[in-house]
Amino acid sequence: MLARATPKTSDTEFTTGIVWFRRDLRSFDHAALYHALKTCRQVHCVFVFDKEILDHLPRADRRVEFIQASVVELDAALRALQPSAGLVTLHAVAAQAIPALAKTLHAQAVFASHDDEPQALARDAVVRGALAHMGVALRTYKDHVIFERKEVLTQQGKPYGVFTPYKNAWLKKLDDFYLKSYPVAAYATHLAPCERQPVPSLQDLGFETTNLASLKLPAGASGGQQLVEEFFERIEHYHATRDFPGIKGPSYLGVHLRFGTVSIRQLAAMAYPLHLQGFQGASVWLSELVWRDFYVQILSNFPHVAQGAFKPEYDQIAWQHGKPAKALFEAWCQGQTGYPLVDAAMAQINQTGYMHNRLRMVVASFLVKDLGLDWRWGEAYFAEHLNDFDLASNNGGWQWASSSGCDAQPYFRIFNPTSQSEKFDPEGKFIRRYLPQLAKLSNAAIHAPWTAKPMELQAAEVVLGKTYPQPIVAHDAARTRTLLRYAVVKKPHALPDA
DNA sequence: GTGCGATTAAG
DNA sequence: TTAATCGCA
After folding, report:
1. A312-489: what CATH class?
2. Is the CB of A153 under 7 A from strand C?
3. Cβ proximity of A52 and A93 under 8 Å
4. Can A170 be counted among the known catalytic residues?
5. Would you state the pLDDT for residue A289?
6. pTM of the model
7. Which of A398, A391, A397 is nearest to A119 (CA)?
8. pLDDT tens, A306-320?
9. Residue A288 known to be catalytic
10. Which residue has the higher pLDDT, A225 or A153?
11. Partner residues linked to A139 by β-bridges
12. Residue A464: beta bridge partners?
């Protein structure tokens, strides 16, 4: 077979293009970078430390430090691909800086990855408009999920609102094409020369150093790769270990998925064959990746969830408010609720920016259904403190816990913080790590110190109300109040099962 | 001959 | 996902 009209190899559409990196801080298996290199003779790479985002963050923010370190590594990785190349880094308002850079460089196109968070969509619309005004194209590509937007739909062409059928359709649609990686290295000669300039330091950006270095959270694509390798050593146990915060069960890849220092295709491509081979751990973990796609898709198709309940009737609920509510919230934030598992979990997020997934559900349930506080308060707290904060997943998780979401837990299902503790931290290993003041309590008493005999408290050097708080609410009473509070959403025939 | 939805191919 | 091609009205 001869001259099969060789498609695109020499058909560079543009002389100059820009790849605008955002939440995709890697130089391999990268959709936008691939397409840019393929269609432009010269490709400039840029990252903007966006003042529009950074100015609203606390001055000590582990994520900024993680991003800064990852950007340094990305710059080096680009130079490793092509010695004359590199990353242009700016500290500016991205919506203005990108069009300005396109003008300076005489670029005809800008390439970037999809970001379907409402603020990112708004920013990209502004950029698209400004670029169009100059005759410059903005081309964006799916990169951070396997399936997005309207790729997985029901038979009726509607987005899924229930996870299990979504997952079935997701798995059915999956094939090796969607897991294939985008080869970048082969086109590295199209990377444009870049004057070597240092990436702004954390101090240049106006931020303080955090304790990130002391946490076991290696940044950059190399850090991501390291965690991937470590996790796949234990993935076959994932289903059995993932619910126990005292055990190293999870992948800890959330933050790398958030900033694109790992490739979702690579992860899914590694887990999928193990799933097919029947490794339960891999199947359960793959499901977690599907949950991530699910919530990204929910946010994209139902953007109102960023403001209010997925199920509108849940916006009728009257939450606790005023000064007492603020005090309860403050106690929750500070890990001063008197429920050890809740408090240990809050200590974990406050000290590390990470919280075990099981505990995210426990503290969320506690905030909403024991304290009677608006789930958005908790959502906002997580948004500020979680290293791996992702609007879609965080919102999905909080709406799940508050029962207001799609496929959420029923409103009358209320976690008992003590039995969760007994079940998932039976030896109090996790509690003792984060609440050393309770370390000497017995396994029987550590989940609910207020039930311990005075003798035991004394022997363990615990003084309730002094070294450790009394419970700020009684769970049983709170449970009753919550059922009343949620009565406004009750469907005429729905009967509570408990 | 045209046009648009469906299908298929491509990292 | 995007891009190209197909196929039937």
Report:
1. mainly alpha
2. no
3. yes
4. no
5. 97
6. 0.95
7. A391
8. 999 999 999 999 999
9. yes
10. A225
11. A111
12. A468
